[in-house]
C-alpha cells in the first residue's frame, strides 16, 4: 500500500526552508536536514542527531523518507552497475552507474516503461505505465551513491543523465523538480552542466527546457536525418518532423548558448550510407553540434544487428568529414544488458548473459 504521506525528497531546498520557518525553526535546520538526506543519505529521521528530538518526530509524522528497494545489482566486467529497483507501488525500474576515470555517472529512469515505441529500444517493449515522482528520480542517484560508499569508492556521484527508461520530456515537472534538488549545493550538489536530459524529440518539452532558468544539457536522439527513415524507427517522428525538431533545437541553442548533443545509434546498413551523412549535414547546417555515435546495443528479439568494430570505425571516419564534433561512444555494461536501449527488466533474462548478480543481502566477496 502506498503511504498517504509525501516523501520529504520532493521538497526543494527553499520549500524545506519555508517549512522549517512555519514550524518555528531557524533556517539552518533546513540545511541540516538536507545534509542528512543527500550528503549522508540516511533513511530514518531518528538518525538526524543534530536535530531536536521533537522536530525529528514532527517530521516523521508529516513525511516519508523511504527509498527504493534494491532487488538486484548486476556488475559488468567494465565496472558498470545496473540496479533493479522496486517502487513503493511494486513497479520496477532500472538505473545504471557508470564509473569512468573521476566521473561517476548515474543514468536514471524517468518513467516506468516507455510509451514512445522506438524500434531499436528494449524498453519500448514494456509500453508505458506511469511517470516517476521527483523523489523516485532523486533516489536512484542516492542508491548509486550508497553503493559507491559500500564498495569503498569515496567519490561522489558527479553526473546524471536522463537516458534510462522513459521519455523525460513527457514527465517534465517531476524531472525539473528532481534536477533542482540534485543541483542544490546544500544537497547532492551536482552541477546543472553535469546533468543531461535526453529526448527523442518532444518539442514542447524542448521549448520549456529552453526557457527554464537552469543550464542543463540537452541531447536529442536523432538516429537519422532522413524523415521517412526516422518515421520507420521512431513513431513520434510521424507527428514531429525534422523541421520542427530543428527549430526547437535552434531555440534551445540561442537561449542557452550551449551546443546541443545529438545521439546517433549506428544501425549498420540502415543509417550509415553517404546519403545519410549528407542528410545529417543538411539538417544541422550552421548549428554547432556534437554527435555522439553509439553502436547499436542488441537485445534478444531486437530487429537490428550490432555493427562490427570495422564498420563502426569506418562510419566514424566518414562522419568526421563533417564540420561537427563526432564522438564515438563505447558501449558500457553490455554484458549485463545495462547499455543504452537494453533496459527492460524481465523481458530480457539476466541469466542468459551470466553477469555478476547479487542482492543487497549477499554482497560480492
Ligand atoms: N527517451 C529518451 C531517453 C531514453 S533512451 C531518448 O530517446 O533520448 C537513451 C538513449 O539510448 C537514446 O539516445 C536512445 O536512442 C538510445 N538507445 C535506445 N536503444 C538503443 C540501443 N538498442 N542501442 C544503443 N542505443 C540505444
- Total domains: 2
Radius of gyration: 21 Å
Helix content: 25-40%
Number of strands: 13
CATH topology descriptor of the largest domain? TIM Barrel
Q: What is the CA-CA span between the terminal residues?
A: 35 Å
Task: Count up the helices.
Answer: 10
- The CATH architecture of the largest domain: Alpha-Beta Barrel
Order of helices and strands: HHHEEEEEEHEHEHEHHEHEHEE
* Distinct small molecules: S-adenosyl-L-homocysteine
Mean pLDDT: 90
Output the CATH homologous superfamily of the largest domain.
Answer: Aldolase class I
Main β-sheet: number of strands, strand sense, barrel status? 11 strands, mixed
Strand order in the largest sheet: 12-11-10-9-8-7-4-3-2-1-13
Write a concise synopsis of the structure shown.
The protein is of the alpha/beta class and about 375 residues long. Helices cover about 30% and strands about 20% of the residues. Strand 7, helix 5 and strand 8 form a beta-alpha-beta unit.
Describe the structure.
There is one protein chain. The protein has 365 residues and is α/β, with parallel strands linked by helices. It has two domains: 52 residues, DNA polymerase, domain 1 (Orthogonal Bundle), CATH 1.10.150; 284 residues, Aldolase class I (TIM Barrel, Alpha-Beta Barrel). The protein is 31% helix and 19% strand. The chain has ten helices and 13 strands. The strands form two sheets. An eleven-stranded mixed β-sheet has the order 12-11-10-9-8-7-4-3-2-1-13. Helix 10 links the parallel strand 11 and strand 12. Helix 1 packs across helix 2 and helix 4 packs across helix 5. The radius of gyration is 21 Å and the shape is globular. The relative contact order is 0.12. The structure holds S-adenosyl-L-homocysteine (SAH). S-adenosyl-L-homocysteine (SAH) binds next to strand 8 and strand 10.
